[in-house]
Amino acid sequence: MQRVCFLLKVRADRLDEYREHHRAVWPEMQQALRETGWGNYTLFLREDGLLVGYLETEDFEAARAAMDATEVNARWQAVMGDFFESLDGARPDEAMRPLEEVFHLD
């Protein structure tokens, strides 16, 4: 099982709205995440907008590609794209760069 952690930055002026969207993630988006291998997927948000994402999956690149192939992900990314800083033209899901795991206590 791969453990994947990534960082993104939510715009400070959009934090409340970002939180609201994640209180009501579309059921079809949740289903697509489950079906494409995004297990134990968790987002943590700091008050300055630092977003820490964590998930467990058999193969992150395969899980990401499977989500990319869904229609619901395209709609979700289109809605969420304006919430983030420094995406350099990428969608939020394309800008996720896994951090190096240096320690894990089982």
TrEMBL record:
GO BP annotations listed: rhamnose catabolic process
InterPro entries in the cross-refs: Dimeric_a/b-barrel, Rham/fucose_mutarotase
EC number of the protein: 5.1.3.32
Keywords for this protein: Isomerase
Membrane-crossing segments per the record: none
GO MF entry, a single one: L-rhamnose mutarotase activity
Recorded superkingdom: Bacteria
Keyword Isomerase: yes
One Pfam family cited in the UniProt record for this chain: rhaM
Entry keyword annotation includes Transmembrane helix: no
Protein's UniProt name: L-rhamnose mutarotase
